[in-house]
Amino acid sequence: MSLPPWRRVFDALWLEFWLPLPILGVVFWLGGSLIKDQVLSRPYTTVSTLQADRERDVQLSLTVLLIKAKIKKSEGLTQVEVKTVDSTLKKLEFEFPITEFEQVETSIAQKLGLSREDVRKLVRYQIK
Fold it and tell me: Residue 68: inside a domain, yes or no?
């Protein structure tokens, strides 16, 4: 049986394979864009918002070994370094805009959750 001439050209160029490819490409393109539009148009709600502009109060239970307070009268501030016995947190540093001994001790006691008497026993001052 003899094939018509158009059919021979069709078979020789593999057109039965190549012709459906653009149709499949268009179907995948349209389907993908529909799915993309559905996914991207869904409302996005957050459960909780991140507030990074506020300072959080953290209560730590640690054993204080030594407190060094460097009072810089010319700058009007006190730098405090707290050394601990804890293996994970060995050193804490604070800076207070005060230079009076009583106020420094009170501020340290509030930050560390200690009594003022305990802070007075542990603190070592250096005045610059």
Answer: yes
- Structural domain includes residue 46: no
The verdict on residue 47 lying in a domain is: no
Please answer whether residues 97 and 106 qualify as being in contact, where contact means their C-beta atoms are separated by less than 8 angstroms.
Answer: no
From CA 37, how far away is CA 29, in angstroms rounded? Answer: 12
- Which spans in the chain are helix H? 5-12, 15-18, 20-40, 101-112, 116-122
Residue type for position 77: L
Concatenate the DSSP letters of all residues of 6-30 into one string. HHHHHHHTTHHHHTHHHHHHHHHHH
Domain assignment present for residue 50? The answer is no
pLDDT digits (tens, 9 = 90+) for 18-77: 788 889 999 999 999 999 999 888 887 766 666 666 776 666 677 899 999 999 999 999
Q: What angle do CA 122, 125, 128 make, to 5 degrees?
A: 165
